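Please check this one:

***
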Amino acid sequence: MRRDNQSSVSEFLLLGLPIWTEKQGIYYTLFLVMYLTTVLGNLLIILLIRLDSHLHTPMYFFLSHLAFTDVSFSSVTAPKMLMNMQTQSQSISYAGCISQMYFFLFFGLLDSFLLTSMAYDRYVAICHPLHYTTIMSQNLCFLLVTVSWVLSCTSALSHTLLLARLSFRGDNTLPHFFCDLSALLKLSSSDTTVNELVILIVGTVVMILPFICILVSYGHIGATILRVPSTKGICKALSTCGSHLSVVSLYYGAIIGLYFFPSSNNSNEKDVIVALLYTLVTPMLNPFIYSLRNRDMKGALGNILTRGKFSP
């Protein structure tokens, strides 16, 4: 590390995952397989939605954006983590660290907004089925995705710009496998009061409010199902909402466990493991959840395979 008493650090050291050195090879292989599964699985979802005209609906429009976001979200941290495990190198440049933090926040927030849009889509489909095509128009779908991208970009940029003004003249060791915002703030030698205030305000707007919107949407869905308690109606609701609810539970469950129930001691191991859960495990499970629980996706995959089998 190149630094002196008057300048900020030029690089950070990522301690990585709390894994014994002799088991690095096993975990490297495991995480590589998980990352490749995440990329290939989500790209398959995007391909199926693009090729099958039956999937050109608002729900699958949002799902294709979610799949792209999941690939990008994992790609922000996983390749660097795998490279560090393979080369035993822990360093990341200051610019690389700031960039990684920005894209991590950006795609993480975008995930939250897209899940909210998908919850609203399910609410309209079940609670207002006769007006679904009118309400969920193509223009509204594009507007929801555009707003999601703009809000995510703006929020991530605000944190990044505020972090860039801080000085890092002390310890440059991050007890994490990527450049986490909270870990960076702890290392800063500057006053981080403004940063923490912005995290509180922006976090409430871009994380808590979307989560509340999802809960309200599914509250209305549940009330609608209970008003017409038929087995057919319940099965239909579960088939259309089950996949989305599973993904929401995984995503917000990990975030709540990490940020609302922080470690009670100085050990950072729990935070690192939970962060690994929602940066690598959750995006990997999404394709399985949507393909195994969704009849339309399985049908589209069957059609593509059949077409390829009988094509000359």
Confidence is low (pLDDT under 50) at residues 1-7. Residues 103 and 259 are 19 Å apart (CA to CA). The longest strand covers residues 11-14.
